[in-house]
Amino acid sequence: MTNSNPLLRRSQPARIAENLYERFELRENPFPDSPTIVPDSSDPRRNGEIYCADLRAHEQNQFERLLIPRMEHENRLIALLMDYATRRGRGIGKTAFLNHQRRRIMADLGDELTDGAYVLLAAHLIPEGGGRTRKFWQFVRLVAQTMNESKCISWAIWRLRAVSGLIPDDVLAEVDPRDPAPTLGNDQWLRQRGIEVTFALNSTVAQRLIEAGVREEVARSLAQGGHAPEDWKRQFLDHQTDYRWRQEGHLLVFDDLVRLFQAADIRQTLLLVDEVEKIVVPQNRQERRTFVDELRRHFVDGPFQNVYARFYGLLLTIHPYVQELWAPHWQASGLDRVCALSGGMSEEYTIYFNPLNAADAAVPLVLAYLDHFRIIPDQRGQLAPFDQESVVEALRLSGGVPGPMLTLLRLVLEQAIREGWGAIRVDQVRTVYETAVPIEPLEEDVPGRLPPARVDLIED
Amino acid sequence: MAQKKQWPPPKSREVGLFTDLTLYAEALALAQADSAVTVFTLQRELGQRLQKMRLVPQQSERTVERLVREMRYFGWLQPKRQTGEKLSTAPHIMTPQGLEVLTLSHRDPRAFRRRLVVKMQETYAIPGWFVARLWQINPDGQGEVILPAPLPDWRPSSRSWNDNDWSNMLQRQTLAAARQSRQVSSSAFPITDQDWLGAVRHVWNRLSKLQPRGRRKVDSASYSPRTRLTLAMREAGVNLLFDRIPYGDQEPDFPGERPPIYLRTFMGWCPRLETLELIGYTDWHPRVAGRLLFPTSVFRSSAPTSQFEVLREVQNPCGDSLWLHQPKWTIIRDKFLGTLVSVHSDCSAQTGVLYVSLLDVRDEVCRQLRLSALCFDRFLAQAIKDLPASDFPWSIAVETDIREQESGGAGQLRQPVYLDGVPHTLIALARLPQDKSEKGASYDQQQPSFAPLTAGTHS
After folding, report:
1. What are A369-421's pLDDT values in tens digits?
2. pTM (two decimals)
3. Preferred mutation among B184, B331, B332 to probe A, highest tally of A CBs within 10 A
4. For chain A, how long is the longest CA-to-CA vector?
5. Do the Cβ atoms of B23 and B102 come closer than 8 Å?
6. What CA–CA distances, in Å, run from A157 to A105, A190, A205, A263?
7. Closest CA–CA distance from residue A398 to any residue of chain B (Å)
8. What is the pLDDT of residue B452?
9. 8 Å CB contact of B144 and A446
10. Which of A202, A294, B295, B306 is the most exposed, having the fewest neighbouring CB atoms within 10 Å of its CB?
11. Closest by Cβ to A454, choosing from B162, B169, B457
C-alpha cells in the first residue's frame, strides 16, 4: 500500500505510553476502574484472577461443607448465599467469591477439593434482568447456555473421547489434562494424528450417549459439536426456539445432560446462581409460586435423572428482600424441608456474607492487587505507596464493602500521580473520598436541616 | 379540669373542592349579566383560565355544580323558583349579598378574599381550625408540618395487582420517609415510628383490596408501588395529624364522631387556604420528600397592625381572632431582601446555575418569613420596582422560561409567580460592582446597609 493515497493510510502502531506508576514500583494502576467481575475479560483486575481467598476463608469453608461431596458426608442439594450488606450498596464480593469457587473446581475438576474422590464441574450463572429470567424455562435455558460456555459440556465430551478407545495412548499423552481444549477439543488436531473424527469418534461417542439414555437427536448433536462451546451453541442451542425450551428444555438439562455427565463419569455439577433477585423481583405472586414448585420438582422429587442421581448442586445467592419475597412460596412448596430459607434451621443451609472488618481485611485485600502489578517481584508483600492506616481507613470509609474501596484507591492513586505525592497516607485518602463522586452509594443522602423561621408570629 | 372548648360543628361538609377562587366573582358577574344562570350556562360561559401552569378550557359540570352549591350556602345565589328543582338544572339568581360581594371583588380583591375566609369559616369551620391545628402540631416550629412521602430515589418497577403484600421494603421506605422529615425539621413530624408504620400499613392494605379502575381485569392489571405508597402515606398522615382528636391529645376539637376532613377534602383545602393567605405549602421543596405546610396566620388576642391584618369574625374556641401575617413593605423590606439573597444563593449553589427556579425560591422565602405567596409576589414586584437601590447593590432578573421539569406532569401544578399579571418562573440575583469613588474600601469589604441574615435571627 502506498502512503500517497489517504484512503489507504494505515494505522500506526500504538506508542508505548510512559508508565506513570513506575515511581510506585507498579506496572499500572492495580485497582480496577469498575470493580465488577467480568469472567471473560482479559484484565486480571476484572476477571476474578486477582482474589484474596483469606478474606472469605470462613465462607469458603461453609461453601465446601454445604456443597462439595465428600466420602464422609453428602452435600446439600440446595444451599443459599445470603448477602447481608445490601444496604451498604453493591461490591461486597459475592460474584468474585463465586467466580473463585468455580475456578477452583474447574482447575482440576474437584480433585483437590474432594481429595481425589469425585469429579466435579461448576458453572456460574448470572440471570438476565428486566424480567427475562422470570420463568422456569428461561432459567433452564440459562443453565444450559452457561454450562456450555463454562465448558462443562465440553469437559464431558473430552472425557468421553478420551475413553472411547479410538485415541491411542501416545496421542492421549500429548493432551494437557488441565486444558484439553486445544487437543481433544480440536478436531483438526485429532485428524492430524490419524483419528477418524466424523464417522468413528463422534459415532462412538453418540452411541455411548444413546445407550446411556440421552435422546438420539441430542446425543448426536453433543457428539458432533459438544467438544467446542462455540460449535454446540451454533449447531444446537441457537436453533432451539422459545417454544422448544418451554416444552423440552427441562428434559435437556435435567435428563439428557445429566446422563451425558454420568456417562463421562462426572459425579456432580454445581450451579452457582448469582443475583437471584433478577429472577424473583420481577415475578408476580403466581410466578414465584410456580418457579419454586418447579425448583422442587426438578431438584428434589420429580421424575428426572437429576433427581435420581442427585446430580446438580444448587447455590442461590439471595438477600433479605428476596428471602422475604420467597418465604411463603418456599414453605408452601415444601422446599423448606430440603433447604430452610428462614428460621432457626436456615443456618444449616446458608453461607452468610457480611461486610468485611476493615482492620482485618484491608491489608491482605490491597496487597493482592498490588502484588499482581509489582514491577520487581521482590517488592511483593509491601504496601507502599500506602501504609496500613490508609488502607484500613479506605475500607472503613467504604463501609467494609470491597467494591467501593477498590474504586476509591484507584482514584487515590490517580490523584497521587497528578499531585506528585510520594506516599499515600490517611489524610490523602480522606481528601479524595470527600471530593470523589461516590460510585457506590453507601447510605441514603442525609439532607441538611431546614433553616428555622426568621419571624415569630406569636411574639412579633 | 376545665373541659376543652370545641369548635362549632360545620354547617355543611359539602365543600366544593375546586381551588380557583376567581370562579366566584366570575360566576356572580354572569349571574348579574344574565339575570339567572344554571349550571349548564355557567359551564358554557365561564372562560378558559390558567390554573397554576395548566390551561383549563372549560370547567367540569361537577365543579360548576359545587360552585353553585357553595354560593348558595354563602347566601350569594338563590334558586329563582322555590320548587325544589334539582340544583344541576335550576336557574339561580344573585342575592343582594352576592351583589355586594361582586362589587367588593372588583373594588378590593384583598377584601373579597377576606370575606371568603369568613364565609367559609361560617359554613365549614375548617379554615380557622386548620390553622390552629398546624400551630398545635408544632408550636415550637412556628406551625411547620411535614406529611412525608417516599424518598425520591425509590423507584420500584410495577407490580401485578395481586402482588400487594406489605413487605420489609415498604416498611423501610415508610420509616426512611419519616426519618428524613425529622432530619430536615425535627418537630414538624411528631408521629412515632410505630404509629406511623401502623397507619401507613393499614391504608396500604385497604388500598390493596380495591379493584382496578376501569375495565381492567385483576389478573392483567398492574400498579405502581410508589404511587400506592405515596397515597397511603398521605392518607395516613392526614388521619394522624388532622383527626378530630389532635395527635397525642385526648380531647376532640369537634363534637360528634366524624373527622373534620378526609384526604380528599384535605387535598382541596390546602390550595384554598393558600389562596386565602392563611397557610403556605409546597410539594416540591428540594429538601423535603412530601408536603411541607406552614401557617401564614395565627390566633392571637392582639398583634401589631404594621405586620398583621385581623379577621375578627374568625375566632378560635378561646375567643382569639385570626391574624394574617401581612407586613407592610417598609417593615419587611430588609428582611425580605436578605432572605431572598440568601435563598437564591443556596439554590444557585445547589444547582450550579445563576438562574434558578423562582418557585423554589418563593416557597423557601415564604416558609422562612411565613408569608403568603401573594405577599411574595407583591414584595418581589416592589423590590424590582425600587431598583436600583443604593442600600441593595443587587440586580434581580426574572424570566418566564419553562424548565423541562416544570413543563409537564406535576410541574404544571405549581402556581407561578405573577408580576404585573405575567407568570414568571426563573430568577437570578447578581451582586453589583461597588462604586469606584469609595476609596480605600475593596468590593468585598464594603458592607451594604443590610446583610444576609444568619439563620435564626428574628425581627
Report:
1. 899 889 888 888 888 899 999 999 888 888 777 888 888 899 899 888 888 88
2. 0.54
3. B184
4. 104
5. no
6. 18, 14, 8, 9
7. 21
8. 32
9. no
10. B306
11. B457
